[in-house]
């Protein structure tokens, strides 16, 4: 806890007018008290009238001091209010600039998002098209595989038939050789006969 001497205390110095007013009231009280001791009703009455006059003067002085202090306080409050108004104007301008900057950034981000969404849609379309082309190529590849298998089967069958034909041609050539030899023998026998 801070000591009272280290904390700043805002204290107003007593006004000279308030000291004068207090002195007037003290003089009035002393005058009434002094004349009361004399026992003269005329002196007490005059002291009372003097006391009322001095009291009114002290009241008027105090009222003037109070009005001045209120006006001074009002000026301080007006100055403080002006300072707060200036701060508020500055903060409002900063806030408006922040809102404009943030709105611009948000608009830029929304534009970027829209562009990316459009690009993503285009990419998805290209991907779908690529998948369709891939599926078509896979079907063509499968058909080609089936055609290759079919052609290999046909090639094997054709090679087997060719082998059988070669064997048959060889058999026919042997038969032709036999028939040719028989014919030549028959021709030779006819020429000798």
Brief overview:
The protein is mainly alpha-helical and 193 residues long. It has helices spanning 16-38, 41-192.
What does this structure look like?
By secondary structure, this protein is mainly α. 91% of the residues lie in helices and 0% in strands. The protein is built from 2 helices and no strands. It has helices spanning 16-38, 41-192. The longest helix has 152 residues, at 41-192. The protein is rod-shaped. The termini are far apart. The relative contact order is 0.03. Mean pLDDT is 87; it is low at 1-6.
Mean pLDDT reading? 87
Class by SSE composition: mainly alpha
* Unreliable spans: 1-6
Overall 3D shape: rod-shaped
Strand tally: 0
Count of discrete alpha- or pi-helical segments spanning 4 or more residues:
2
Distance between the termini: 163 Å
Order of helices and strands: HH
Give the helix proportion (percent range).
over 70%
Characterize the main sheet.
none
Q: What oligomerization state is this entry in?
A: single chain
Please name the defining characteristics of this protein:
193 residues; mainly alpha; 2 helices; disordered N terminus
Mind sketching the topology for me?
Layout: H1 16-38, H2 41-192
Helix pairs in contact: 1-2
């Amino acid at each position: 806890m801070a000591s009272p001497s280290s904390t700043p205390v805002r204290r107003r110095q007593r006004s000279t007018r308030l000291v004068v007013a207090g002195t007037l009231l003290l003089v009035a009280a002393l005058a009434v008290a002094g004349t009361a001791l004399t026992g003269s009703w005329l002196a007490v009455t005059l002291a009372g009238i003097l006391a009322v006059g001095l009291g009114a003067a002290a009241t008027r002085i105090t009222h003037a001091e109070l009005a001045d202090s209120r006006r001074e306080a009002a000026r301080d409050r007006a100055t403080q209010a002006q300072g707060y108004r200036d701060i508020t104007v500055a903060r409002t301008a900063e806030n408006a600039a922040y809102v404009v900057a943030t709105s611009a950034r948000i608009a830029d981000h929304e534009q970027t998002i829209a562009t990316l969404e459009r690009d993503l849609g285009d990419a998805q379309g290209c991907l779908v098209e690529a998948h369709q082309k891939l599926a078509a190529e896979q079907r063509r590849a499968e058909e080609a595989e089936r055609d290759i298998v079919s052609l290999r089967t046909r090639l094997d069958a054709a090679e087997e038939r060719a082998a059988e034909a070669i064997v048959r041609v060889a058999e026919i050539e042997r038969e032709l050789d036999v028939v040719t030899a028989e014919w030549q023998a028959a021709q030779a026998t006819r020429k000798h006969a």
